[in-house]
Amino acid sequence: MKTAAGPAITLEELQLAARNHGLPLEALRHDVTPLGLHYLLTHFDIPHVDERTWKLEVGGRVDHPVTLTLDQLKERPARTLTVTLECAGNGRALLARRALSQPWLQEAVGTAEWTGTPLAPILNDAGLAEDAVEIVFTGLDRGIQGEVEHLYERSLAVAEALRDEVLLAYAINGQPLPPQHGAPLRLIVPGWYGMTHVKWLQAITAVDEPFRGWQQDVAYHVRESEEEQGRPVTRILPRALMIPPGFPDFLARTRFVEAGPCTLEGRAWSGWAAVERVEVSSDGGQSWADAELRPPVGEFAWSGWSYAWKAEPGEYELSCRATDAAGHAQPSVAEWNYDGVCNNGVQRIRVVVRET
Ligand SMILES: Nc1nc2c(c(=O)[nH]1)N[C@H]1C(S)=C(S)[C@@H](COP(=O)(O)O)O[C@H]1N2
Ligand SMILES: [Mo]
């Protein structure tokens, strides 16, 4: 992977940023992100798929390989789950030295109602062989990354793939999946970072040794250099985000707020456990106060929070941070890593409070 030489965004990063958009932070107001406002990340091209001829191949180390059409998948039991999805690269562009990739600030997140059929019964019907250790999920999209040509593919350990909440989804927010979100079928693995949720599925293959594809084995590791193997990225670390209050300056995005009571609001989530605490700071992280936390909007989705701020004239840096029940806390600045993944350092919003 190439790294940026300086702080300025390169044309190559801009090219990616213009294709892959984030959630406008004001859309954090919605429990479920309206379609079109959910973030998007596509490594290569969005494949053009004819749903009438599309098929899913389930095979490899199984006793009964099977080919399923979209109609057959829709005839199976359906389940809808509200899931918060976040890209592992969220926060990348805020790192001092960064990998040349999608330059997210902090907006690569969204919550959707995904409808599909659970994966486990399909694998059980196919009959996993005793030596199956992982399930590989293959997309239809091909490209070159890290100088290696490949289809977008990721794997999961058998025990993770068999979890009840893992879905093969064909609908989002009650609508058929649109092309950009993986039509006609994608994987949903609640709690895991975005790269796991393979879009445009064409094959699900049980394998008897750990999968070594580029997106699995090389990408998505927390490591300090290209030579190091590192630690694989799995579940989403806690993060809180605030809806920027008041109104913005067009270019700098500095916020302008009238003096007086001001409700600060936002969302917080973690893929490890429920969010237990959200705190807010108005002095650049020197002091923190507890925000009021609402129950999550779904078992695998974010919680809303609010905080009554008494805005007095002056200039402020507002921040928020989340802690989950598994003891993961959000750092003010996350530790640097080579791929620019899992950067859950706190959000900072510049606010000018004016006399009324
Ligand atoms: N086939 C395929 N699946 C994919 C990707 C991709 O490029 N190709 N990108 C992954 C990444 S990195 C993320 S963050 C999520 C984004 O899902 P969304 O675009 O529906 O929000 O899809 C994942 N699934
Ligand atoms: Mo991602």
Figure out the total of helices: 5
State the CATH topology of the largest domain: Sulfite Oxidase, Chain A, domain 2
Number of beta-strand segments: 22
Task: Assign the CATH architecture of the largest domain.
Answer: Alpha-Beta Complex
Beta-strand content bin: 35-45%
Oligomer designation: single chain
What is the CATH top level name of the largest domain? Answer: Alpha Beta
**Series of secondary-structure elements, N-terminal to C-terminal:** HEEHEEHEEHEEEEHEEEEEEEEEEEE
Give the helices and strands, then pairings.
Layout: H1 11-19, E1 56-60, E2 66-68, H2 70-75, E3 79-86, E4 109-118, H3 119-126, E5 134-145, E6 148-157, H4 158-161, E7 167-172, E8 175-176, E9 186-188, E10 201-207, H5 214-217, E11 221-222, E12 231-232, E13 239-242, E14 247-248, E15 255-258, E16 260-269, E17 275-281, E18 289-290, E19 292-296, E20 303-311, E21 314-324, E22 349-354
Parallel strand pairs: 1-10, 15-22
Antiparallel strand pairs: 1-2, 3-4, 4-7, 5-6, 5-10, 7-8, 7-9, 11-12, 13-16, 14-15, 16-20, 17-18, 17-21, 19-20, 21-22
The structure holds the ligand Nc1nc2c(c(=O)[nH]1)N[C@H]1C(S)=C(S)[C@@H](COP(=O)(O)O)O[C@H]1N2 and molybdenum atom.
Residues 41, 87-89, 194-195 line the site of molybdenum atom (MO).
